[in-house]
Amino acid sequence: MSGPAMSRRAALAAALLGLLLAAPASSHEDLTVVNWGGAAARAHMLALVRPFEERYGLTVNMEHYGGDLDDIRDQVEAANVKWDVVDFEYSDLITLCDEGYLEPIDHRTLPPGDDGTPASEDFIDGALRDCAVGSIVWATVYAYSRTAFPENPPSTIGDFFDSRSYPGKRGLRRDPRGALEWALMADGVVPDDVYPTLAQPEGVDRAFDVLDEIRNDLVWWSSGPQPARMLQEGEVVMSAAWNGRLFRPMTEWKHPIDIVWDGQLWEIELWGIVRGTRHLANALEFVRFATDTRRLADSTRYISYGPVRASANAMVSADMRPHLPTTPENMNNALRYDSVWWSEHHEAMKLRFESWLASGGEATEKARF
After folding, report:
1. Longest CA span, the chain
2. How far apart are CA 257 and CA 229, in angstroms?
3. Residue 19 domain flag
4. pLDDT, tens digit, 9 for 90 and up, residues 230-253
5. Do residues 39 and 114 both lie within one domain?
6. CATH assignment at residue 226
7. Given this model, what pLDDT does residue 29 score?
8. Which pLDDT band holds residue 360 (cuts at 50, 70, 90)?
9. How many domains does the chain have?
10. DSSP 8-state class, residue 166
11. Domain residue limits at 115
C-alpha cells in the first residue's frame, strides 16, 4: 500500500493514538465503599460520601454487601480486589483481620476530636482495632404494633417471650446471634451473666428451651427492611429489628410502631480496608474523614445509630437523642453483644440452631465448643 491510501491510514492511526492519550488513565472510580444497603447506605451517602467527594475531588462508588466473608477472601486470594473500604460487623471484622485479609490502620493518623481530645482517648472501648476504626453503635431491639396493643403495651424483653399476655406472631432474625441472648435474659439471666451461661452446654439448652415456648409464634426474617414491613402489614405484632431500620418508618412514614429498649443488644460497626486495594491512600483518607467528630455527628441526622466518639456525642441534636442506643435512658438492662465470643462459636451455634429449626423446634444437638 502506498500514496494517498498510506497517508490516510497513517492519519487515522495518529488520530486514534491522540484520543487514547487524551482519555483518562482509568474509567474506574477512585474508591469503592461497601455497606449493608438500605437506611445505612442513605446515611453514608448523605453524611460521608458526598462531603468526601466534594472535599477531595474524588469519585466514590458505593456497593452493597450481604455479609458473606468469602466475597472478600476471594478478591484477596485472586489478587483482584474490587472493594476498598467495607463496613463490617464486629465479629466478621475480627475473623478477617485475624486471617490477614485486611490492611493495618495506624490510629495515630486519626484526627483528634473537635474539642481537642486525642483519638486514642475519644473513641469508646473496642472501636480501635489493628485493622479497623469504629463507625457507629447499633442495637438489636424489638418493636411492637400500637394497633395490636393500644393499651398496656409490652415494655420488657420478657414480654417478647410472653405470648399469653401478648398474643400474636413475633419476628426474629434467622440466626442464633441475639436470639439466644434474649432467651436467657427473658428467663431471668442478668446481662453480665449471659455469655458465661452460654459458655456452658446446659446454658445453651436453657436458651433453646425458652425459644421452644414461642416456637409456633415465630416468623423468621433475614434482611433489615423486613421487620418494619411485617409490623406495618400486620404479619407480626412485634419483631426484633436493627434500631436504625425503624427510625424512618417511625418518624417520617408515621407507622404505628414503638421500640422497646429494655434488653437491647448493642455493638460497634467498623470500617476496614481490604488487603491489596490499589487505592490504599484514598481508602485511608476516607476512613479518617468518615470517623472524625463532625462526620459521626452528621450521620445521626440520617440514621439513629450512635457515634463512637465522645466528642461527636456532644454534638447530637436534642430531638435525636431519644432514638439512639447510646442515650443513657435506653441503656437500662442493655447487653453489649460479645463479638469475640460469637467469632469463636458462631459456626457451632448455627449448626445447633438450624438443627433446632429443622426438627420442628426441639433441639436435637448439644452445643459443641
Report:
1. 96
2. 11
3. no
4. 999 999 999 999 999 999 999 999
5. yes
6. 3.40.190.10
7. 66
8. confident
9. 2
10. S
11. 31-137+268-331
